[in-house]
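Inputs:
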Amino acid sequence: MIVILKHNTQEEKRNQLIGWLKNQGVDVHISQGEYQTVLGLIGDTAKIDKDLVASLDMVDSVKIVTDPFKCCNRKFHPDDTIVEIGDVKIGGGNFCMIAGPCSVENEEQIVAVARSVKASGAQLLRGGAFKPRTSPYDFQGLKATGLELLKIAREETGLPIVSEVMAVNDLPLFDDVDVIQIGARNMQNFDLLREVGKLRKPVLLKRGLANTVKELLMSAEYIMAGGNEQVILCERGIRTFDDYTRNTLDLAVVPVLHELTHLPVIVDPSHATGVAKLVRPMALAAAACDADGLMIEVHNDPMHALCDGAQSLLPEDFDKLAKEVKAVREVTGK
Amino acid sequence: MIVILKHNTQEEKRNQLIGWLKNQGVDVHISQGEYQTVLGLIGDTAKIDKDLVASLDMVDSVKIVTDPFKCCNRKFHPDDTIVEIGDVKIGGGNFCMIAGPCSVENEEQIVAVARSVKASGAQLLRGGAFKPRTSPYDFQGLKATGLELLKIAREETGLPIVSEVMAVNDLPLFDDVDVIQIGARNMQNFDLLREVGKLRKPVLLKRGLANTVKELLMSAEYIMAGGNEQVILCERGIRTFDDYTRNTLDLAVVPVLHELTHLPVIVDPSHATGVAKLVRPMALAAAACDADGLMIEVHNDPMHALCDGAQSLLPEDFDKLAKEVKAVREVTGK
Amino acid sequence: MIVILKHNTQEEKRNQLIGWLKNQGVDVHISQGEYQTVLGLIGDTAKIDKDLVASLDMVDSVKIVTDPFKCCNRKFHPDDTIVEIGDVKIGGGNFCMIAGPCSVENEEQIVAVARSVKASGAQLLRGGAFKPRTSPYDFQGLKATGLELLKIAREETGLPIVSEVMAVNDLPLFDDVDVIQIGARNMQNFDLLREVGKLRKPVLLKRGLANTVKELLMSAEYIMAGGNEQVILCERGIRTFDDYTRNTLDLAVVPVLHELTHLPVIVDPSHATGVAKLVRPMALAAAACDADGLMIEVHNDPMHALCDGAQSLLPEDFDKLAKEVKAVREVTGK
Amino acid sequence: MIVILKHNTQEEKRNQLIGWLKNQGVDVHISQGEYQTVLGLIGDTAKIDKDLVASLDMVDSVKIVTDPFKCCNRKFHPDDTIVEIGDVKIGGGNFCMIAGPCSVENEEQIVAVARSVKASGAQLLRGGAFKPRTSPYDFQGLKATGLELLKIAREETGLPIVSEVMAVNDLPLFDDVDVIQIGARNMQNFDLLREVGKLRKPVLLKRGLANTVKELLMSAEYIMAGGNEQVILCERGIRTFDDYTRNTLDLAVVPVLHELTHLPVIVDPSHATGVAKLVRPMALAAAACDADGLMIEVHNDPMHALCDGAQSLLPEDFDKLAKEVKAVREVTGK
């Protein structure tokens, strides 16, 4: 940790601070410049409250030089983590296509979609059973029944299943779900993160609407600190002033995360844009910048089909997209 | 709900949509303009999925004309809600000063701060026992012990206590806490909102870092839909491109919320700015624009005092501020 | 234009508003719902001040249903605009690679970079002569001399040149520059837009740091309304809360602009990210989502080369990237 | 300047960088930590390109420790600047009320508004003659005629006048305008800033929609570096994800600017919110947090009055507000 003091700091104040820092168990190197004093803290600086020090009147700024994340840090674990779900692999050069409907609606729907996306090359089936809804009056999902229907679709197709959990007390219902999804609104639900950290099954962690890269990594760290190392990160759009798409898909995060962490990074273009016709271009872009997978909404509902819209693709569109994604990945050398 | 169709929509597509809408149980009024067709939906439009309709190729945009929030809507409940905690009232012209340390550290600290803020006119004591921390390696609070220490401070001073809950399974520990706080990161933890909605005690609901006014009201609605009508809203800064304060305090939300809802609205200038010397000006500004209360961090810790900083005020600063806040409220006529 | 009135609007107030609207020369259709009244304005609504109407106490919201942009609107001009610069074409399926150094430094540098990027397939040479700098104390570019050096490089290589203009009074210096760039900070310098609208040469218009898609199109409209129809739009990153790249590259804007306008849309991954190693992945992503071109910083300066960094690529990296971009475009079917 | 190198930097690379830095004329102090190396640069670091250094592969981050702004920096000029316009003073404890219509419409209007706001205590008259409009098809103001009408209103009332300039070539028309306003969209129109820096009259500089505090100060620096020291800064709302007001008024910037600079800081609640009924609470909040003045839109147009809305206040509302602002300032001790 580096502490930069303001120009006009009194020596007495400065010495009080240095004394206090040393009491916390760190060594302090003083480097006196023309316009400022720089304190370099050596030792176990994790105990020092950065915000507290930064807020002192005499302090210009504080710079953390060691990353606060350990388990997910590529520095300490240079090889890509490969998350395995049965025969399916994500990461380390293994690209994974996850597809399925926004919500599980009934057996016919989920089985039909599962068959169709499997035929197009999807390796995992997604489907919402517990739905995070802004309004308490909106449909909240089929819940336990939805999970049962997903399992039927798995039995029919062999596709492992991914579904979102919203509450610690619902976790037992997910015992037989292959990948547990933590949604964007729960990215900093630390209680839930801690609990899935106790499990030994893959967790798909979505980036929050307004969370930084470091915060995403620290949330992965909550899970991994509990011993669960099978974490898949997912970019799904951030909230900005932009109003022409639901969220702003932040693709540069993919190569940035690849540098900072060994965990696989996938992209959800359906939720990021909220518009079906933007799913294809954004999926191709994600594949081109080296995402480890895509999570795409596909429906086969004639009502939606009639409408020719929503953020979900029709099975035939998904089939075409899957081929294009494969072609892009071949030429970008991954 | 109003649906604006694109210029070049084929009549057949348009009729399919109208047919589908009527099947959902609403009447459709068609108004044909030179460049667009406007569909006015009459009846119970709550069942219609706005996002689905908006994402159709033929649809330019969809406008919801009835507010999705009911219980907290001033239209249906014109009088201010006054939340009562023992003798303390918030809302309806009753201003409430909530003060206390960021974290409960030990009995001596919390009792001393409680006495001091009470002497300065605070009506509620705040103190963190369960702390939401970005890092799993940071201090997570004294937890149950912290709550016990708060109760001791309450016994010593008579001040009712406010503390943050982070997990549904911790709620039993809060049985004897007077006001339950839901932090910014949990504003859309719908599971937790639903559970505190089952209680019959005041909930202080903080606005999330990147949540809109409507989302804040919908989260209040989750609590109130469960029958718990004692909700206090709290603005504590939003995340923007700005980097000179921890968050951007959004004070215009205070009069805007007063128009939309009957619930009391308070402001937390300590967390919003993260800098002690900005607490006074932002607290005065909040009082001037008619907030129903303030939530302010106060410490009496000599280590912090030495440092003359952090986002917490010293007791003597709080005392001076409380007097100024009172004076501002007198001249702004509330 | 559609005006939605609030629930409790008095009939007298409503009639005053309708009378005033009719005085402005529009017809008003009234549609009375259970909870609101919707006014549909028919006729020349361009004269009506939307903001004024929206701010009335009785008005819930106002919805513009006809696009405010005409010249650049695909509705009125369905075919792609192809901007031609000598033999070079941008748009309508013609992909264009623009490359060159951030700043023109000297003849040797600019000629060497020009030769190298030409050999790699670049069709236009970029180079900054007038530099927008946040600080008045920073290097402001070689100005007129820089433009002369660009012309020498053009003579040596045949590559047409692109350079940024910052002031109306400098425009005469750009008489012999092939494409005039308007930088992000000047996207709403309406005076400058109007002046380049009087020219008959291509203008490369960069999106402002915090400007919406509609604002970008309206700025193009300023240029086109003056009769200059050769406008190239450029996405170069927006300002968000994100702090790990200089800006957040907003690639979904590419397909969105393709739908709204017939103008070509290119992407500048160098300025968007500010980091050399992110240029390749973001350039490939832009190509995959159907951008009409890329604008990439390339240097050959040994000092920079030593440092192996900055947001500029080395010539050999650019060469490799150009091949990959071509391959991506081939498989994405453009 | 402090340069923090990454953990695994090769010594050869490190030495190359140090050699290059020394060639730029600075001394380099090396401080070797367990996990990183910190280089402290001593001497004239202004010549070193921070972005270039920061983007090097081996560099973790760069920290500027001396402020890039000099003329407007309170460190070098501790006393408040008081800008004087005739008898009117802004700054150094002198509060200034600026009021007037959004646009100058005709003589009757501007003279009537001027008389009314003067009677209520306004000290400066504002009025738009050149209007920045997103659309080229919208009314662009009365231009030169508008300025002439403002001068008539000045003659009638004695109030000095403030109006916005949008183009360098229009500056001669402003010879007899008392305060020149630079609008938010032109905050980084460096050409225009440089030109008003050559004048010797007060400039009111509005913060851009998405500009940081440092960028605002650097734009003031452009003006002051030209020798014009009479700069008034103005907060007028920033662009965020929020959608319930036109912009988000960022009041914490007022005390922050007071600490960083000696220049006066005023607030424009009319443009920040875009809603008349929010002007009063935000004006009072600005006064409470120690702004040096307010800029408020006032109209007397019966059409607007009919509508009882817009972002402009009626004269009687302004009169009441002016009294309340005065009362707030009295109790907050300024």
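Chain A touches chain B through 55 residues (CB under 8 Å). Flag for discussion at group meeting.
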